[in-house]
Amino acid sequence: MNDGVLSSRFDGQAEETMHRNGFRSEFGDESRQQVTELSHFDLNALAGEARDLRETLWSSIDNKTSKDLDQIEWAERLENGDIRVLVGIADVAAYVAKDTPIDRYAEQNTVTVYTETRIFPMLPEELSTDITSLIEGADRIAVVADMIVKENGDVPESTFYRARVRNYAKLDYESVGDWLEGNGEIPPKIAETKGLEEQIRLQNEAAIRLGDYRARKGALDFESIESRAVVEDGEVRDIRAIRPNAARKLIENFMIATNVEMAEFLERQNVASLRRVVLAPERWDGIVRIARSFGESLPDTPDLPSFSAFLARRKAADPERFPDLSLSLIKLIGSGRYVVQRPGEDAGGHFGLAVSDYAHSTAPNRRFTDIVVQRIVKAVIAGEPQPYSPDELDAIAEHANLQEKAARKVERRMRKIIAAAVLQHHIGQEYDAIVTGDTKAGVFARILRPPVDGMVVRGQDRLDVGDKVRVRLLSANPHNGFIDFAAE
Hints:
It contains 14 helices and 18 strands. It is α+β, with helices and mostly antiparallel strands. The strands form five sheets. Strands 2, 3, 4, 5, 8 and 9 form a six-stranded mixed β-sheet that branches. It is globular, with a radius of gyration of 23 Å.
């Protein structure tokens, strides 16, 4: 596919969709004035008693085009074989004070919304892509998770503190992933930076330990396929799949470990905080049905180890189609939600990750909940009063859950508009698909290559969520994003 469509024509649709779903799309004069004031802040004054770790060989791995860098990493091997891992998280809270204009904007939107041709940042770009971003070569402030990773992947101890840091190399998932997997040359920036090759390989070893440990605990190993629009010379040329690789797994494992340790740290401190919870799936019967179609048997009630073992067997047996199976099962598990963990209470764990405590904390440039958690952590570190009451956190969690759903609606609609623009000249073509939803509005399916969602308007009565089906494209309307399929 290489149907050119002017990407600028979609900006108005994206902004209208944002407003319709309760988001703001432009920062007001007060926020702009605050940005001007923040640009003159003294880093040393903001850092205060923070440790100086600017000589440490920090690096980041993210998308090639990402500028809102929230996380940097470093590791060292200890004499006993343990690996010490440091994860630095951008100290956004140092710049964005509670109840200031920028904070109120972030609290309303709660997330950065990524549409295919335009990004609606939660924070002004002067902050998220520069002042508070852990960009290469610049001195910044971070909240550091300092963790010890044992040979078996357990993390028996961790500490948190603030530090001055410097990112020495902004790396990207694709080139690092290909290199780590033996499918590409060493990225030039790694080759040119003394000690960085050894550093990234050690980080990867620690990440593998962490991933293997969670796998033994029953963590679910899915392999979903995300998509992105390919924009060239202002035109949308294609829709391409983004596949997992070793570099993405490295960052994912460090991120998960940090969020688990952050949650446990706050629980030990006996303070109220936000948790990310994924309950055992209500549609477990659908998961059992899918397993049965492969000749497998799962218990009648949700059982994480059995589910995890089933996934591992299917990935080994048919790796090419495993992303398709993953999509079906992810839809049946359902999405997570934010809740408040009060002292002495159990807010619930994260079913898919096989952990009992999980706090979103590693993306404060992109998620308001992470700024909230960061403020709570920093108050503990500094021995200061907590910035939020449990009731305030309840309101934040409820609103964040609503806005997260709204953000998915915005992103889904814009993906469909872009997809319809690309697909409109392919009417009548057949595709393999997965049924992803059965709602009052209709039955929905995702074709797999390219990954695009649409409604099944013919033959839908015999379908259920998770079913694999062959569909024929009936229509694609780039004005409203309607894509209709017939089940064959």
